[in-house]
Amino acid sequence: MKSLEELRAIREKMQGQVGLRAEDHAHTRVVVGMATCGIASGARPVLNTLSRLVQEKGLTGKVAVTQTGCIGLCQYEPIVEVMEPGKPKITYIKMDSEKAAEVVERHLIGGHIVEEYTLASADIK
Predict the structure, then answer these.
(1) Does residue 113 carry a pLDDT above 80?
(2) 43-99: pLDDT as tens digits
(3) Handedness of CA 39, 16, 18, 14 (dihedral sign)
(4) What is the DSSP string of 33-88?
(5) Cα-based distances in Å from 116 to 21, 51, 52, 83, 121
């Protein structure tokens, strides 16, 4: 059993993370596909990395990280969609924690789409 102090500290920490996942359409939304296929492909570490880095980099006032169910492109999981107000949605495919960190740095902070990780870069026939 945890002490009351420890439980309060855990609650405060988790409330900050829950706030990261709140949806606000005036901010950039980062959505991770967390259906069975996404989870099986490694989406949970991607979601955790994105949530942690958004918090660590001080982006919580501008970026909301959330999850969704099936996006419908199972062969490209884990999938991360970035939706910025007034811009087309960017779909990143076959993500992992390292790629997610790069998307945070280059796209969310730097403003440059990481083209090589996007659905548009896939060789779809």
Answers:
(1) yes
(2) 999 999 999 999 999 998 899 999 999 998 999 999 999 999 999 999 999 999 999
(3) positive
(4) E-SHHHHHHTHHHHHHHHHHHHHHTT-TTTEEEEEES--S-GGG-S-EEEE-TTS-
(5) 26, 22, 23, 18, 6
